[in-house]
Amino acid sequence: MVAHDGGQRQQQRPSEGGRGDSQGVPSLSALGAGGHHATGGSKVVQIVTQRLISIAIEELKQPETISKIKDHILAPLVRLIYAQIYPYLIVAAVVVLCALVMWVLMFLMFTMSYFRRS
Known about the structure:
Blueprint: H1 38-60, H2 63-117
């Protein structure tokens, strides 16, 4: 249960890093009677979710975090996908090259046949 101080609420400090009410996210003290009612509980979940998302977005915007994501997640993922697709790319290139060679040969044969008739 949430302990109450006789109806008087203490002013809560904004969270670290300047986050908090300045971003339009209501503070937990704005919930009313401690958030233990059914509607208050869903408000708490909404507020906590909004704050977690805001913190995650701010963290993901930092250059160090972007660098870590690129180096440890994206680059290995691209290498893995490339390693899996590479054989199919080679086969596709060979098929296209063969089709191009066949087209050139057919073009030459039809051209030679046309000039022989005339």
